[in-house]
Design goal:
The chain has 240 residues and is an alpha/beta fold. The chain contains four helices and ten strands. It is 26% helix and 24% strand. This is Disease resistance R13L4/SHOC-2-like LRR domain-containing protein.
Length: 240
């Protein structure tokens, strides 16, 4: 969508007061445009699924005005402080799935998640860093209601303990690690050690994925998408 269509979409959405589920498909550049609230807004909205080709740059701030939104699936460019603050301020959010397409932090830095990011109702969190490593570190008091954590990231040569011992309600961790066998074994020990320190004694499921194969799969998917677009352009071109 271009800018005019995106603004028209938000105006239309603000009038769908009884809408309970929303799927956004295709290509969307921006869903924010300075809107703090949608008035009157879809206040009955429970679920939003953003399945777009490109990642959006900023998590829409108007999501925080949706009092009953409990499930969100979104693809964003980065999981920096501003985006995390918006996500953490969605009042009823209990199930969050985030796909991240770009690295935000330096390899030796992590964004500390603490009580400044409320996530008052969050029970399940899934984050997939498509190209990067784990960029978060959980501080004491963070995500106090989180029960299930699902992560996918590239393992780098650094500490794989990112504060899992501080998630007081954690019940299970599922992690898909993109790395070689040696790095996988080291990371597995570090993650399990952190969970052993957690008073709730969460269980752990670890899966290793070959990063080279993942890169080839992503490249093949991109080529298929480009081919489909070019075929559509060719089929719609006027005859000479």
């Amino acid at each position: 969508m271009d800018e005019n269509n995106e603004k028209a979409f938000l105006r239309c959405l603000s009038n769908l007061v009884n809408l309970k589920s929303l799927d956004i498909l295709g290509s969307v550049g921006n869903l924010d445009y300075g809107y703090e609230n949608l008035c009157p807004g879809p206040q009955q909205l429970r679920s939003i699924n953003v399945k777009t080709y490109e990642a959006i740059g900023a998590v829409p701030r108007w999501l925080t005005s949706l009092c009953f939104l409990s499930s969100l699936d979104i693809k964003i460019q980065n999981l920096g402080e501003k985006n995390l603050q918006v996500l953490g301020s969605i009042p009823a959010l209990s199930n969050l799935c985030v796909r991240v397409t770009e690295s935000t932090q330096d390899e030796d830095e992590r964004l500390v998640v603490n009580s400044r990011y409320p996530f008052l109702c969050l029970r399940r969190l899934e984050i997939n860093w498509e190209v990067g490593t784990m960029e978060l570190c959980f501080a004491p008091g963070a995500l106090q209601n989180l029960g299930v954590l699902d992560l996918e990231f590239v393992v780098r040569e650094r500490d794989s303990n990112f504060g899992l011992q501080h998630l007081s309600s954690l019940e299970h961790v599922y992690a898909k690690l993109r790395c070689g066998e040696t790095s996988f074994k080291i990371a597995a020990v570090e993650i399990q050690t952190a969970l052993d320190m957690n008073r709730n004694k969460p269980t752990l499921t670890l899966v290793r994925s070959d990063p080279i194969r993942v890169a080839l799969t992503v490249q093949q998917s991109a080529l298929m998408f480009v081919g489909a677009v070019m075929g559509k352009i060719k089929s719609t071109s006027p005859l000479p």
